[in-house]
TrEMBL record:
Alphabetical list of InterPro entries matching this protein: Leu-rich_rpt, Leu-rich_rpt_Cys-con_subtyp, LRR_dom_sf
Descriptive protein name: F-box/LRR-repeat protein 7
Superkingdom of the organism of origin: Eukaryota
SMART domains: LRR_CC
Gene3D superfamilies, A to Z: Ribonuclease Inhibitor
Length: 321
């Protein structure tokens, strides 16, 4: 029987238990699921007092789950803040099942109370507009999902880069870069210059340590954003632009060519990507160590065989059906 059901039946007796016994119960509940604590708090005043004064520094993964929203959203957000303030060691946080719970104000609260946060899932959190993401700039975030959020959310990640270089992603920008790279003594940049360039690039992206980014089904994500990732996402390993109808082959080419750490790119349901031309392009490229994920809509068995024969080192190639 679930702890909440047991506690509900014994609610009158719980109020008579000493605080240290209740604290032990709260600790045991947190080992199963931190959210269980706040379900228990609903059945006893004593549990509420203990839960609010208890800390859970060892909790690393936290997923908010309020499947039955019978109360007002403000009540759930208050409970969410209470949980976050008591779980300061959280590294992985998910709001995936709560489309209307997370907003920019809650993100600002997260930035203040979760200094170790590395993974944040905001998929389909429709109230996230992006301003709250700036409050996370000091958090060592490595994995971020914004799939289904407001278009302005992804814009915040690259706001500084776009503001300082309006030509980013255009032919003019590429030409200016090549001219700069060709100048200097002996045509080569010194280690100090390279380090400075890397520092400037990191300072132009909100989360420079990102290894995984999911911006699926974002209508405003196009080749401009792919160019920004190619220039500033120096540690990117996994990217999903699934269903981003404005991403073309040019953007994918530039990303894979510029970021050697990339391992997977989900471009399924991107209508501007011609698989056959994509194959032909990669036949002209040096064998890349990354793994690309292509949609299978336009593939034929002969096309798959041809790709395998021309790219024998793509051992981890993954296809999405």
């Amino acid at each position: 029987m679930e702890p909440v059901a047991v506690a509900s039946r014994a609610a009158p007796a719980l109020d008579k238990l000493p605080a240290d016994v209740l604290a032990k119960c709260v600790t045991l509940a947190s080992d199963m699921d931190v959210m269980e604590i706040y379900r228990l708090a609903a059945v006893s005043q004593s549990f509420r007092e203990v839960a609010r004064s208890h800390a859970f520094p060892d909790v690393r993964d936290l997923e908010f789950s309020f499947p039955r929203m019978r109360q007002k959203l403000d009540v759930f957000r208050t409970e969410a803040r209470t949980v976050l303030s008591q779980c300061s060691g959280v590294e992985t946080l998910s709001f995936r099942r709560n489309e209307w719970l997370a907003d920019d104000e809650l993100l600002a609260y997260i930035g203040e109370h979760l200094p170790k946060l590395r993974s944040l899932d905001l998929a389909r959190c429709r109230l996230v507009r992006g301003t709250g993401l700036r409050a996370l700039r000091l958090v060592p975030l490595q994995h971020l999902s914004l799939s289904g959020c407001a278009p302005s959310a992804v814009e915040q990640i690259f706001e500084r880069a776009w503001r300082t270089n309006r030509l980013l992603g255009t032919d003019s920008q590429e030409d200016s870069e090549s001219m700069l790279q060709s100048t200097g003594e002996n045509g080569e940049a010194t280690p100090d210059v390279l380090r400075e360039r890397r520092r400037q690039k990191q300072n132009r992206m909100l989360f420079p340590q990102l290894k995984s980014l999911n911006v699926s089904y974002m209508a405003n994500v196009d080749d401009k954003y792919m160019a920004m990732l190619a220039k500033y996402a120096l540690n990117l390993q996994h990217l999903s632009v699934r269903g981003c109808e404005n991403v073309s082959m040019r953007g994918v080419h530039r990303l894979v060519r510029s970021v050697p750490t990339v391992e997977s790119v989900d471009v399924s349901f991107c209508p501007q990507l011609d698989v056959q031309l994509l194959i032909e392009t990669f036949r002209c490229q040096p064998v890349h160590s990354s793994c690309l994920i292509f949609p299978l809509d336009d593939w034929t068995p002969s096309g798959l065989c041809m790709f395998r024969s021309t790219h024998p080192n793509f051992e981890k190639l993954t296809f999405i059906l």
